[in-house]
Structure formats: structure tokens, C-alpha cells
């Protein structure tokens, strides 16, 4: 792995350096184009290997293709220097932020959405000009094998190698020094990744999870709310990091919530979800046993049927769940939806705040004041009102957690900035040295007064330029008017 595509010698001339830069930019552009080509040419093969065509394309392929198209359209804007405000002291200088590649990025993907959570960071890494090591999850072995086969056909395998394998291979990778590590997965493994990165002072982006709460206001449209919650909870068999983990509602509407959720389950997955091709399975036996153990001691309002041989757990709704219930001790990450009753919004907010900060807080209400209170009085990676999951589809919104649910964010430009070094640049002329006398010894009260004036007066250059333009236009207009008046006066004298 190399930091740069071409390494110059110390004696290279300026022309050679410019040529080298052009070659590097061309090669980076070609890598981006090849990656975009891969997403279309191998799509049918990938979908056939993974699962049902429409589900995979909707939840994984489309979002990756959209991210690539956005990067290609906006790359010149993202990568260009970003001017910043200046003080009077630096008014004659150039001050800007210049994004530059970090170097080599390690991307450790997850198994629940193996394409989206692995390739989305890769899009940003390539756009930012980095090399990357891609480590797909060994749990989703089918997707990992397809990545291992196809990525080298479209991307330089020396710059973007795919490393398959399990825990031991990941541990060996983490012993190496990278310029950034991007990890998606559990909080427990996230701690290990951060510990390994700390040995090399490597920055990390951790996209973790947590128990994302969903508060339902009793005055909202329960039919629509439960329809959207049911979809968000049971898509991918509940194995979504931003799925609603549990519902908080008042006791008076619990029965109606249960009925509406059951109605939606039957609409989406029929009376026999086991035979519905849009309803998935738990990824392996280990997670199957974990989820089944979480349901112990809770009252099942619907579902609960399971088949260990096929890792099938039917859509399940639990009622009258308490904070002490086993299902509330960890993130469920499965098709089990507990309902906890609270006295109202105050208790719901208190319940959320007594626990670790989740990846997202959901609130369903027609009242803007209720939504505003949840937004102002809780903390989470994101807040989504009156829907589930869809904030992930907006690349302009940074996606990430806070505290226990992760650190750092990505999507669109946020990925580009996350995987770039935003270099501060100040280019000053060697003239106007008299202005600098105030900083040189001997220091006096008069020099301090000038320093205070020059340093604390910030100049908004675009605004100043608009004022100058306006003043010039006013001056030009006054000049034209004056010329016309004089011309008119001259004509009168002539007559």
C-alpha cells in the first residue's frame, strides 16, 4: 500500500511536479469512474447472490449508486479551496481551507447491510483521494466473496485491496498503522477497534448502535404511525442499527398500538411471514439464540414463533414490558418489538435520558411542541419525527452516533470531509512589513492597542466585496447622471 500513486524524487523540476499532479488527478478520476461502472455492470450478479432482487436493490444498491453519482457531480466543489473570513491584519493575504487526502483508510464493514455500510465509506475514501483496505464482514460471507471477486476487476488491487477472513485477520489488520479507521458494528468491538487505533494515534469513525426509542403521542394518527414503525422495525428482519428498538406510549393506547402493528405485519408479510419472500432470517445461530433469550419473561402480544433450523423468528410484539425486562438490557437487533407504557411525555423523556445516548430518537406526534421538547430535552445521533429510517437516505444529513452509539459521521460531503485532512492555508505577501511592527519587541501599550484593533476586527470578504460593488455602481450611476446633466446644459447654451 502506498500513500501516493507516484512518489517524486527530490530533484524533480516544477514542470515534472505539475505533470505528476496531473497524472495523480487523472488516475484518481479513473478509479472513481471504474468504481461507478462496477455498480451497474455487476448489480444483477450481486443481487442474485444476496437475496431477493427488489429488497436488496431498494435498501442497498440504490443508496450506493446515489452516493457515487453525488460524489461525481460535487467532487470539484468539495475538493476546491474553501475561503474563510479574515481579520484586518490578514486582509491582503489568502486564507482558505484546502482538503487533502489522509492516506490509507481501513474500512471494516458490517454484516446486516454489507454493501451499503462497506461501500458508502469507500466512495468517500476514493473521492477524497485515499487508498483503502476493505474488510467486509465474515458473517455475510456471500457478499464478502463477491466483493473479493469484483472489486479488483474495477479498482487497482494495490490501492484498494479486499481482505476477507474472520476475527484473526481483522486483529492482524488492526496491528498495522492506518491514517483513518472506519468501523461499523457493535459497541463492544468498537471499543477494541478504538483501543488498537490509539496505539498509532489513528483517528477513528465508529458507527455503532444502541436502543433507539420510539415515542408515540396519544393524539397522533396511530394508524399511520404504526404502519411506519412496523416497516422500520421489521425490514431486514429487524437487523437494522437504526430500527426502532422499543415503543414508549401511554397505557390508554397500548392495545390500539398492538392491534395496528399486528394489522401492518399481516399486510406486509401475510399471515405466514415464514413463507413471505420479503421477510428475512436471522443471520446465524448465535444471534438466533441471543434474540430468543431476550424474549424470556416477557408477555407476547403477537408472534413469537420460531424455527432454529432455518434461523427464523417471526415478527413479534411484546406488551407490558418494563425497564427491568431482559429484552431491555441490550440492543435487540431482531424482529422483536417491546412496548413500554409511560404516563406521558415527561416520563418518556426521563426514560430515554436515563440510558445511553441512542443512534436515533423517534417521535410520532401532530404537535410541534411535543416534537420540539423531544428534540431539545434528549440527545442522540439523530432525531426523526413521524417516520423511521428515512433520514439515512438524505446524503446532506450527517449520519452517525454520539457517545455510546458512536463517533464521527458520514454520507455525501460529510464522508469526504471525514476522510480528508482539512489543511489551513494562509498565503501572505512579503510587503507591508510596517503593519507587523506591533508584534515585534519592544512591546508597548500603543502596539497592544493597534494589535487589539487589527486582530479583533473580522472582515467578511464576500460582504465587503458586495458593498464595494454596490458603491461602484452608485458612483457609476452618479457619474452618468452628472454627464447627462452637463450635456443637457451644454445643449441649452448652444441653442
UniProtKB/TrEMBL annotation:
Full protein name: Aldehyde dehydrogenase
Domain Aldehyde dehydrogenase: 13-422
Subcellular localization, as worded in the UniProt entry: Endoplasmic reticulum membrane; Microsome membrane
Membrane topology, from the record: Single-pass membrane protein
Family classification: Belongs to the aldehyde dehydrogenase family.
PROSITE patterns named in the record: ALDEHYDE_DEHYDR_CYS, ALDEHYDE_DEHYDR_GLU
Organism domain of life: Eukaryota
Record's keyword terms, sorted: Endoplasmic reticulum, Fatty acid metabolism, Lipid metabolism, Membrane, Microsome, NAD, Oxidoreductase, Phosphoprotein, Transmembrane, Transmembrane helix
Gene Ontology biological process terms from the UniProt entry: aldehyde metabolic process; fatty acid metabolic process
Subunit structure: Homodimer.
Subcellular location, principal: endoplasmic reticulum
Keyword ATP-binding among record annotations: no
Transmembrane region(s): none
Reactions the enzyme catalyzes: dodecanoate + NADH + 2 H(+) = dodecanal + NAD(+) + H2O; 22-oxodocosanoate + NAD(+) + H2O = docosanedioate + NADH + 2 H(+); 2,6,10,14-tetramethylpentadecanal + NAD(+) + H2O = 2,6,10,14-tetramethylpentadecanoate + NADH + 2 H(+); octanal + NAD(+) + H2O = octanoate + NADH + 2 H(+)
Annotated active site: 207, 241
GO molecular function, one term: 3-chloroallyl aldehyde dehydrogenase activity
Keyword Secreted in record: no
Cellular-component GO terms for this entry: endoplasmic reticulum membrane
SUPFAM superfamilies: ALDH-like
Amino acid at each position: 500500500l502506498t500513500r501516493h500513486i507516484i512518489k517524486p524524487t527530490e530533484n524533480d523540476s516544477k514542470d515534472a511536479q505539475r505533470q505528476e499532479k496531473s497524472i495523480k488527478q487523472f488516475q484518481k478520476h479513473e478509479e472513481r469512474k471504474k468504481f461507478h461502472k462496477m455498480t451497474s455492470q455487476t448489480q444483477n450478479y450481486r443481487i442474485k447472490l444476496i437475496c431477493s432482487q427488489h429488497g436488496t436493490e431498494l435498501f442497498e444498491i440504490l443508496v450506493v449508486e446515489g452516493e457515487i453519482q453525488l460524489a461525481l457531480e460535487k467532487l470539484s466543489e468539495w475538493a476546491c479551496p474553501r475561503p474563510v473570513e479574515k481579520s484586518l491584519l490578514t486582509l491582503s493575504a489568502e486564507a482558505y481551507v484546502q482538503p487533502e487526502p489522509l492516506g490509507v483508510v481501513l474500512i471494516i464493514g458490517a454484516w446486516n447491510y454489507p454493501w451499503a455500510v462497506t461501500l458508502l465509506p469507500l466512495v468517500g475514501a476514493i473521492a477524497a483521494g485515499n487508498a483503502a483496505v476493505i474488510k467486509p464482514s465474515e458473517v455475510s460471507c456471500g457478499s464478502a466473496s463477491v466483493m473479493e471477486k469484483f472489486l479488483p476487476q474495477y479498482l487497482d488491487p494495490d490501492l484498494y485491496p479486499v481482505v476477507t477472513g474472520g476475527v484473526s485477520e481483522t486483529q492482524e489488520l488492526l496491528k498495522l498503522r492506518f491514517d483513518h479507521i472506519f468501523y461499523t458494528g457493535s459497541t463492544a468491538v468498537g471499543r477494541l477497534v478504538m483501543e488498537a487505533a490509539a496505539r498509532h494515534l489513528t483517528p477513528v469513525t465508529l458507527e455503532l448502535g444502541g436502543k433507539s426509542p420510539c415515542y408515540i403521542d396519544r393524539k397522533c394518527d396511530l394508524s399511520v404511525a404504526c404502519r411506519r414503525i412496523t416497516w422500520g422495525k421489521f425490514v431486514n428482519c429487524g437487523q437494522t442499527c437504526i430500527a426502532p428498538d422499543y415503543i414508549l406510549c401511554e397505557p390508554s393506547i397500548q392495545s390500539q398500538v398492538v392491534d395496528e402493528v399486528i394489522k401492518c405485519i399481516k399486510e406486509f408479510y401475510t399471515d405466514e411471514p415464514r413463507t413471505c419472500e420479503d421477510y428475512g432470517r436471522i443471520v446465524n445461530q448465535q444471534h438466533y439464540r441471543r434474540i430468543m433469550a431476550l424474549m424470556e419473561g416477557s408477555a407476547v402480544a403477537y408472534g413469537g414463533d420460531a424455527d432454529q433450523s432455518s434461523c427464523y423468528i417471526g415478527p413479534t410484539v411484546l406488551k407490558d414490558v418494563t425497564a427491568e425486562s431482559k429484552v431491555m438490557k441490550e440492543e435487540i437487533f431482531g424482529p422483536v418489538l417491546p412496548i413500554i407504557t409511560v404516563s406521558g411525555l415527561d416520563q418518556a423523556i426521563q426514560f430515554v435520558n436515563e440510558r445511553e445516548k441512542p443512534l436515533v430518537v423517534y417521535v410520532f406526534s401532530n404537535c410541534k411542541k411535543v416534537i420540539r421538547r423531544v428534540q431539545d430535552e434528549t440527545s442522540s445521533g439523530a432525531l426523526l419525527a413521524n417516520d423511521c429510517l428515512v433520514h439515512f437516505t438524505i446524503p446532506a444529513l450527517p449520519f452517525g452516533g454520539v457517545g455510546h452509539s458512536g463517533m464521527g459521521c458520514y454520507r455525501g460531503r460529510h464522508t469526504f470531509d471525514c476522510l480528508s485532512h482539512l489543511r489551513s492555508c494562509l498565503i501572505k505577501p512579503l510587503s507591508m512589513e510596517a503593519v507587523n511592527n506591533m508584534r515585534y519587541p519592544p512591546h508597548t501599550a500603543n502596539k497592544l492597542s493597534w494589535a487589539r484593533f487589527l486582530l479583533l476586527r473580522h472582515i467578511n470578504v464576500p460582504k465587503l466585496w458586495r458593498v464595494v460593488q454596490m458603491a461602484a455602481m452608485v458612483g457609476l450611476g452618479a457619474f452618468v447622471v452628472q454627464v447627462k446633466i452637463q450635456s443637457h446644459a451644454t445643449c441649452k447654451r448652444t441653442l
